[in-house]
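Dear all,

This email documents one entry for the complex benchmark we are building for the journal club exercise. For each entry we list the sequence lines for every component of the assembly. Then comes the predicted three-dimensional structure of the complex as a token string, followed by one or two observations. Please use this as the template for your own entries, and keep the labels exactly as they appear.
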Amino acid sequence: MDRPPGSMWLGAPLEQLPTPALSLDRAKLRHNAEQMRERCQRLGLRLRPHVKTHKTLEGAELATGGSRRGLVVSTLAEARFFAAGGFDDILYGFPLPGPERMEECAALARRLEAFQLLIDTPQALALLRRHPLPPGKRWLVWLKLDCGNGRAGVLPTDPAALSLARAIAEDAPEEVALVGVYAHCGNTYGCRDIAAVQSVARDTTAAVLRFVAALRQAGVDCPQATIGSTPSCSHPVPEMAQLTELHPGNYLFYDLQQTLLGSCRPEDVAIRVLTRVVGHYPHRRQLLVDCGWAALSLHGYDQGPAGCAAVEGHPQLRLVGLTQEHGQLEAVDGQLDFGRFPLGTVLALVPFHACATAAMHPIYYVHAEGKVVELWHPVRGW
Amino acid sequence: MDRPPGSMWLGAPLEQLPTPALSLDRAKLRHNAEQMRERCQRLGLRLRPHVKTHKTLEGAELATGGSRRGLVVSTLAEARFFAAGGFDDILYGFPLPGPERMEECAALARRLEAFQLLIDTPQALALLRRHPLPPGKRWLVWLKLDCGNGRAGVLPTDPAALSLARAIAEDAPEEVALVGVYAHCGNTYGCRDIAAVQSVARDTTAAVLRFVAALRQAGVDCPQATIGSTPSCSHPVPEMAQLTELHPGNYLFYDLQQTLLGSCRPEDVAIRVLTRVVGHYPHRRQLLVDCGWAALSLHGYDQGPAGCAAVEGHPQLRLVGLTQEHGQLEAVDGQLDFGRFPLGTVLALVPFHACATAAMHPIYYVHAEGKVVELWHPVRGW
């Protein structure tokens, strides 16, 4: 039988890995997973981790504390992968696509105890009703609310939101059930500090809770209410205790962006891209490394290449160029000491956006005490 | 035996594909491949296509006109993939990495008739000398020149360039051979029009040819000389006929960036990302589609989300937001006619940078006359 790709590197010191390589610090992953679980416990909330950042069975195992129950996924490919991997209670956190994906959704609903969907239109509800599940199974539906993020979801103040919730709950209770309301406060990513993040989290929570109260008053049963985003869940406000779940995702890895937002300390970031110095160009005072956008992504590039990653332990170095497989580094003060970075030197880049960087890698090398201890293989595609 | 992923879609109309999906127009691929081959033929040059854009056996088959000989690859994973797929004469177009990759390079050199390497340092030459190949095999080496691109390569005006070329050619002729000199004029991507691109191509060609002449004068044999970049090779200048090879890559697909640079006509672009309308948000006059940066990349985003892709056939629509799996579209004039784009409508996005978009997809759906006729599966990793 073929061994999984990369398995010859199990036990190897990190510095021996072929580069570029995505490395994850196991102690930090565990710490981040535990912190978020404890945070939710203190609030009396269930943690339903979003798996889109890592897309791995191992990451989801860690994030669910081994229960393998209660995930959000961003694609049907993820839903199938985690279902096949023994996970259940999987919420497909994307507006229900059109009729062409209904057979896939129905197969997941038949297979799992709880395959759950998000909807934000009466058309999606009608689509579910046209595809009833076998007896004993109902479509489990969350209503997506837009509480200021401005992407998917119904505005909770729009009367259509209440009537859609009522329709989900009551139109065909033997076919479709209203599980809860779901809001993503991605607008926390536009914040400059923790206070601003918490203000968004407070507003989102209040909007969700007001909507749930209005539902209750209208006699509509809506058991669950959840909000998510790593910035808001890393510094939860007390009001969030009135929800039932949280669904952050990025926190398992964290990244440079989360550090800048105050979601984590720099030492909590578990993800790196390891790269080697492959060239010295003294005439332009630059190092070349074997990490380009193919291993890093261009996220953060609206601040120029330096926005895409920090060089761990070398604040005097900054990325000044990124092509497909090449990265160019300069000294901030223009005084690059080439002697400190001989050809072959391994550098660790802290990426701006872990979700985007992880998407570029077929293997993640998980390490403990400097040695590779696990290989994670993410799912991809749709 | 398992069928290759996606094979149930062979024969299906494009509009039925699960989205997001990367589609390639076979007639355009063939046209682009043929045009570039003819262009090189007219110049009397060999075309050595770079495969980093598509990373597929089928794309390389097309680009080599079926010969399966003469490629540039950007990673050792590509080199192994194409070697295993029956290709030969493969040039690894990246500065020779350190000792930890030498066993992989040696295995490729032993397996192939011609596995070729780029170097730009005496250290890399010394590394090759420390890893001699079996009798009858020599390391086949191209000297990388930096003729204004400012990335890898020795400056041709630097005396070190001539002495390195001489060392490659003469230090151990039974172990190492100087095949040629190689320059990438990636600086054409900073140009605003064809005249500027041609000026860069002219300068690069002149610098390469001056260097080759200097080598000849110094008695160093250097049979080959090549330059590449899709902009320069799409509008070659007559001087390029004095080289021996060209090595463009992106031209097989082309993209929005190449259209803007004048490398191709809009109708030559073979790549699209198909996406569906999944939401209507009249209160903010936006459509939501199921294509985010996970299917498109963020290349072009320094111009804002609208820089990342054009919506084919709908110049009045522009991308205004891209998250992992969501794209947001608005009308340029703010007057979005939702009736024209019912939920489920399939839209085709023309990506800014084909190399980056292709890197996000595990399957490419190749179509002819609106139906899927081939599935291409790219290699990834390093």
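Observations: The CA atoms of residues 154 and 161 of chain A lie 6 Å apart. Chain A has a mean pLDDT of 97.
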